[in-house]
């Protein structure tokens, strides 16, 4: 009086049961063939419903993840913006005291401590600025304006800005010949940020007495320019190279861990480069 046929849906198993009235004759081969077709159709129908449920569930999760990511980016941007004002005040008042405009400090130790306050404030401000920029980029609020920019002028600006930091570590910072007429189609502030991040990394991870050389080479095959920053630092493990550029990822190693940072420098460079095309 009953025919049991298997139903299979992904990793699940089920049974399709066909019943006949009591007293009826049993099932013949034609009934079994028809039952198998019903079982197959049921399997397909259940699989399709399962697929629709999965798509709907994944879409809901993706939407929730996107909303959470946007909320996080906006939080980082707003939080960083709020931190900049007091940090600028800390740095400004430290400078004001160190110059002695209102009179001498009177104690060498106090002067040393104020110098530490100032350098710590500058370090925190650089981190906050990176967080602010990264938050804006993730939230889609960072705007760029492409224009022809003299690469020679930008190289000079960045090297002059970082010369003092390189000098503290006795690192030689040099730039190869760059044609004054060489123009690149970029966003000026984005290009500066990229150069400062990468050359700054080269200085940070170089040993005392090292050398950093920046080379600019126009490409013949296409209208592009290659900028190479070479240093004599600790290097990056091969297995870590593929992860660089991901947010908050830093190269592992004893030497790398001696230096503070958020791991956003290269992520920002990747994002800015992509935004400028």
Radius of gyration: 32 Å
Mean pLDDT over the full residue set: 81
Strand-residue proportion: 15-25%
| Uncertain residue ranges | 253-257
Structure annotation, total helices: 7
Overall helicity: 55-70%
The strand count comes to: 7
Strand order of the largest sheet: 4-6-7
Q: Whole-Å distance between the termini? A: 72 Å
Which overall shape is indicated by the principal axes computed on the Cα atoms? elongated
By secondary-structure content and strand pairing, the structural class works out as alpha+beta
Largest sheet: 3 strands, mixed
Please write the string of helix (H) and strand (E) elements: EEHHEHEEHEEHHH
Polypeptide structure, described:
The radius of gyration is 32 Å and the shape is elongated. The chain has 277 residues and is of the alpha+beta class. Helices cover 56% and strands 16% of the residues. A hairpin with a 6-residue loop joins strand 6 (211-218) and strand 7 (225-231). The protein has a three-stranded mixed β-sheet with strand order 4-6-7. The protein has a two-stranded antiparallel sheet with strand order 1-2.
